[in-house]
């Protein structure tokens, strides 16, 4: 089985307007830079993006905002930390103007929604968010005397993930803290597209070290090591 | 007492942020797993070198080491505040679903978080300052998970706002992070425990009396039988 593509453009060719796309990355670590840039160039619109934050540490996402490609964002830490930076931030401005719809979740709920989508679990209960604005409009159920919220799984049409090494069958290995959301998103994606720094032949990865088994990955494309850069969030 | 009421500030200068962090570091037991939030909580890590305290960063590392200087930085090795870090002997890396299983599953012995407001019942408001005008959205991040999941929650904060408004109130006015989650509040003037009987004033910094602390606190304080001067 060979899932490798020769370019990011060909790997995302079938993405249509209105797609729901998840993007790995916890700030700067493990972000699918090349795929995101290719998506901006492709210009598809009315996208729903599922990502920790938009444009803070993953500046490539801002191009999607500037191009007017995003209809809705599902995040857990959407904005710059400081209010003054936020006021200057294009994504925050678009949300304030109502041009982009924003849905927020606590991180644990956000990632569990993705994991459940990948594991065939339609919904789950958690006490996190009970008694807060996160609870609004959600079913509340008491277990062991504690209020819990029902949260729905979050399947996505496409997941863009970034891995250190991958083989042609889609087995992936991440480096250090760049694992973050990439595995859960790979599981949640109907079509998961992995950009890898190093693409190897089948048999060259140590099977003991594979983080995301290839069954969750439909396409893999070598994009090299992203340029080093530093941001303050 | 209205929300706009201002605190009466004692003459004694308050603790520096680093000293609030030191008081909290001294509370941590050896052998504990600890998650530190952004702001004053992060400074706690400066006081635990050589201690048997394991720091988790929710991005996905246990035994998170000190910040990495230029030349030793790797963009794939950062903490949850996007700072470059070192690993330590025995560090481990994992994904976010595993990281939050640790937090939600009751494995985190202590979380230290900042706060905008804390109520007498231990409600915490820390993720959304209405002054920013973002309504019901904002940066929740891992704060709600940590507030609900950590076995013990310590709040590290200044006792009142820069504008002189109360932060320790009967009820939080700002959007909540979680209800009834705070166990201990350490401020630049005092250490207060949240108990079923209300807020128990355990310590105040030298030169500050329980009456002084009460004048900076909108909620009523009960002075502990063993109330004493804060030692650092």
Task: Walk me through the topology.
The complex is a heterodimer of chains A (233) and B (232).
Chain A: E1 4-5, H1 8-11, E2 20-23, H2 33-42, E3 47-50, H3 60-66, E4 70-75, H4 83-87, H5 90-96, E5 101-104, H6 107-119, E6 123-126, E7 140-143, E8 146-152, E9 156-167, E10 172-173, H7 182-188, E11 189-200, E12 219-222
Chain B: H1 17-25, E1 32-36, H2 40-43, E2 53-57, E3 61-67, E4 85-93, H3 96-104, E5 110-113, E6 117-119, E7 124-125, H4 143-149, E8 152-156, E9 168-169, E10 184-186, E11 190-195, E12 198-204, H5 210-215, E13 221-229
Parallel strand pairs in B: 1-2, 1-5, 5-8, 6-9, 8-10, 12-13
Antiparallel strand pairs in B: 2-3, 3-4, 6-7, 10-11, 11-12
Using DSSP, what is the number of strands of chain B?
A: 13
Number of domains of chain A: 1
Q: Classify the secondary structure makeup of chain A into a structural class.
A: alpha/beta
Helix content of chain A: 10-25%
Q: Give me the CATH superfamily of chain A.
A: Glutaconate Coenzyme A-transferase
User: Main sheet of chain B?
Assistant: 10 strands, mixed
Describe the structure in your own words.
The complex is a heterodimer of chains A (233) and B (232). Chain A has 233 residues and is an alpha/beta fold. Chain A has a single domain (4-222), classed as Glutaconate Coenzyme A-transferase, CATH 3.40.1080. Chain A has 7 helices and 12 strands. Chain A has helices at 8-11, 33-42, 60-66, 83-87, 90-96, 107-119, 182-188, and strands at 4-5, 20-23, 47-50, 70-75, 101-104, 123-126, 140-143, 146-152, 156-167, 172-173, 189-200, 219-222. In chain A, strands 1, 2, 3, 4, 5, 9, 10, 11 and 12 form a 9-stranded mixed sheet that branches. The N and C termini of chain A lie far apart (41 Å). By secondary structure, chain B is of the alpha/beta class. Chain B starts with 16 loop residues before the first helix and ends with a strand. In chain B, a hairpin with a 4-residue loop joins strand 6 and strand 7. A 10-stranded mixed sheet of chain B has the order 4-3-2-1-5-8-10-11-12-13. A 3-stranded mixed sheet of chain B has the order 7-6-9, with no helix packed on it. Classes of the chains: A alpha/beta (233), B alpha/beta (232). The interface between A and B is large, with 57 and 49 residues.
């Amino acid at each position: 089985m060979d899932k490798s593509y020769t370019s990011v453009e060909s790997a995302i060719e079938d993405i249509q307007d209105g797609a729901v796309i998840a993007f790995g990355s916890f700030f700067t670590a493990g972000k699918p830079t090349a795929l995101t840039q290719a998506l901006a160039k492709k210009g598809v619109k009315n996208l729903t993006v599922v990502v920790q934050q938009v444009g803070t540490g993953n500046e490539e996402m801002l191009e999607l905002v500037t191009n007017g490609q995003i209809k809705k964002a599902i995040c857990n830490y959407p904005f710059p930390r400081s209010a003054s930076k936020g006021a200057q931030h294009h994504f925050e401005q678009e949300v304030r103007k109502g041009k982009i719809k924003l849905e927020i979740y606590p991180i644990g709920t956000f990632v569990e929604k993705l994991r459940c989508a990948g594991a065939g679990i339609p919904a789950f209960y958690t006490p996190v968010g009970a008694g807060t604005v996160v609870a609004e409009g959600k079913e509340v159920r008491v277990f062991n005397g504690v209020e819990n919220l029902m949260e729905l799984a979050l399947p996505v049409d496409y997941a863009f993930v970034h891995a250190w090494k991958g083989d042609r069958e889609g087995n992936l290995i991440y480096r250090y803290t760049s694992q973050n959301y990439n595995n859960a998103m790979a599981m949640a994606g109907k079509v998961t597209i992995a950009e890898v720094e190093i693409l190897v032949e089948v048999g060259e990865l140590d099977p003991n070290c594979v983080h995301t088994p290839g069954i969750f990955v439909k396409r893999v494309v070598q994009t090299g090591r992203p340029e080093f850069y530093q941001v303050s969030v | 007492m209205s929300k706009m009421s201002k605190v009466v500030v004692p003459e004694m200068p308050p603790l520096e942020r680093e000293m609030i962090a030191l008081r909290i570091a001294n509370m941590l037991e050896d052998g504990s797993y600890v998650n530190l939030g952004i702001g004053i909580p992060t400074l706690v890590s400066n006081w635990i070198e050589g201690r048997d305290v394991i720091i988790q960063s929710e991005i996905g590392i246990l035994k998170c080491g000190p910040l990495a200087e230029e030349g030793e930085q790797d963009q794939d090795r950062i903490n949850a505040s996007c700072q470059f870090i070192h690993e330590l002997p025995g560090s481990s890396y994992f994904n976010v679903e595993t990281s939050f299983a640790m937090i939600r599953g009751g494995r985190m012995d202590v979380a230290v978080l900042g706060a905008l407001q804390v109520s007498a019942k231990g409600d915490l408001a820390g993720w959304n300052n209405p002054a920013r005008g973002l309504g019901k959205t904002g940066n929740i991040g891992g704060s709600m998970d940590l507030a609900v999941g950590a076995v013990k929650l310590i709040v590290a904060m200044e006792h009142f706002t820069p504008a002189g408004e109360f932060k320790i109130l009967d009820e939080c006015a700002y959007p909540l992070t979680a209800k009834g989650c705070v166990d201990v509040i350490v401020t630049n003037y005092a250490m207060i425990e949240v108990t079923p009987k209300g807020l128990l004033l355990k310590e105040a910094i030298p030169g500050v009396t329980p009456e002084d602390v009460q004048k900076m606190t909108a909620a009523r304080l009960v002075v502990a039988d063993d109330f004493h001067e804060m030692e650092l």
